[in-house]
UniProtKB/TrEMBL annotation, chain A:
It comes from the Bacteria. The keyword Hydrolase does not apply. Residues 47-298 form the Periplasmic binding protein domain. It is found in: Cell envelope. It comes from Mesorhizobium qingshengii. Residues 1-31 form the signal peptide. InterPro entries: Peripla_BP_I, SBP_2_dom. GO terms for molecular function: carbohydrate binding. This is Monosaccharide ABC transporter substrate-binding protein, CUT2 family.
From TrEMBL, chain B:
GO terms for molecular function: transmembrane transporter activity. Pfam families: BPD_transp_2. It comes from Mesorhizobium qingshengii. GO terms for cellular component: plasma membrane. The chain crosses the membrane at residues 25-46, 67-87, 107-130, 193-211, 242-260, 321-341. CDD domains: TM_PBP1_transp_AraH_like. It is a multi-pass membrane protein. Its main location: membrane. This is Monosaccharide ABC transporter membrane protein, CUT2 family. Keywords: Cell inner membrane, Cell membrane, Membrane, Transmembrane, Transmembrane helix, Transport.
Amino acid sequence: MKTIQRGSWRLSLQAGLLAGTCMCMAGVAQAADPMVKACAKDGQFIIGFSQANNAEPYRQHVNDELTAAAKEVPGFTLQIADGAGNVNTQTSQVDNFITQKVDLLLISPFEAAPLTPAVKRAMDAGIPVIELDRKTVGDPGKDYTAFIGGDNYKIALEAGKYTAKTLLPEGGEAAVLEGLPSSTPAVERLNGFKDGVKENAKIQVVAEQAADWVPDKAQTAFSAMLQAHPDIKVLYASNDMMAAGALLAAKGAGKQVKIIGTDGLPGPAGGIEAVAKGDWAATFTYPTGAKEAIEMSKKILLDCASSVEPVVTVETTAITAENAKQLMGK
Amino acid sequence: MSEQKISEAIGPVPAAPVHRDPLALIVRFQSLIGLVLVAIGGVIFSPRRHGEILFLDPDNIANIVRAVSETGIIAIGMTFVIITAGIDLSVGAVLGLSSVVTATMMISGGFGLIPTILAVLIMGIVFGTIQGTISSRFRLEPFIVTLAGLQAARGLALVVSGNQYINISYGDGPGLAPPVFAILGERLFNNTVPVATIVFIVFAAIATIVLNTTRFGRYVFAVGGNERAARISGVPVSMVKVSVYAITGFAAALAGIVHAGQFNFGSANDGMGYELTAIAAVVIGGTSLFGGSGSMVGTVAGTIMLGALANILQLNNITPALQLLATAAIIVLAAVLQSLVRRREGLGR
């Protein structure tokens, strides 16, 4: 797409502000100025990715997929900064990206409200911001360029419904391992699952404990749960790592428990393989949105798009005994 | 200087070597020297755009000093404790507790700005005082007492927050915080100087004056230098020991308020691991973990140096692994230098 650059800087700024409104009118959008003035088909661009916490395997998986997707585009250089699970560190890294004047900012904010001012500073500096997996406060298309990601609540809701319909149609006791208490995804996944199992009134959630996303704490917590409630039939773990820990606890106690993970990570330690082997009943993927993010970056930086879709929701896939083996190769 | 202060407080001590060891001089200013070296390295290795050195960009300098303001405030309190040969591991957790209490009081409690800030600061002082009292009354290692304090503060924070995070929204009316509180996240003087940094620097200035010019400051050095000698010469050792933990409690609470204001948020997980960053800054700043010597200016320089190092590595897109390794090397170097000086001055240990 070739775009004629005309009009003053002020005009382009206005066009940028109006971009959200123009979404619905394709004809108008085409005539508007590009979101990034320096956009060019064969240009060289630096994309900064502010990652919340590299220490989580899921986030490492996101980094890998993003790196792979960015490599496909000759003009893109991807820089990843690790927020190390600390909003202060992550804020300073976003500020550093602004100082470096990166051409586009990708961010998975560790927490929403704390990173909101930093994202605003980037937008004010004319850097498009695509939020990946987690949002800051405000409206996509206005306070930040776009959001790409899954929906934690919906994914856990699916897991809850799957439990209600398929795993425990006759009812029984279920338990939940929560992530780090008071972190956004932990709260959303806990609430989602609990709402999902409500479809079946015969299911009782008898125990919920926080295991901070890590397998060792999950093993300890689930061992204790099985002591207190020997009849637990289903365990919902808010991520794959905790599901792995819970499996060890179930084996240790000599119990057959149907375990559901979340994230659906690839690789030998991931959830897909665990389901294929029959260790877990299911896992629900939490899509990274990496490919979608790089696609959107191409539209903005290479194709000189004047607007992009403000919200891209990537759907979850339920990985069960039926499809796990088939998905393992991918 | 510190030897001089001890002698003022506790009478004659074996005279310090008359000719100052050049190595001792280096150690005394090690973090300032380190800061200068890191700054020079920053300029040399800084990415440039249109000939402009990014590292020296005023915005970038502001980023560095903003990023270290919370750990800096904590490190200042920690300097008092470490000079008395103590340690306070609870500070990061007290920061988390304070940010949660700040958010809860303003959002659910409907308290105004001043009552909230006063209550949180008093809470920090009380928390520190309890730790100091337990440690001094039962002659327990501060390490153990404050380790327990860390757990207690995180637990209390989870109880207060009900396992949820608390967003701070601003406005007039119930459930909203006074808009003026948001100033902690802003920059003054034509959008250049972060308010969080101003809090850090003002607190550092006050602490420097207290440590270097008051009788209390001399007592702190005396207790850390030789507790028995201090006691014999009439220094209220227990009072001093309790007070320094009250100071770290206050500092952590202040940092928690700054945190809540900067990030419009209170979470029980805030400030995780800050105690270790603060201890690192204090040690790099030339304060001895054996007590008896230390400098506030050194702590400030050490804090900013760590921030500048992180900044220059990220500007060059260097992996965070290297940053941790570099910090490790600097800590060891600082400790080795101190130990060499102690040995030369015949202080042993």
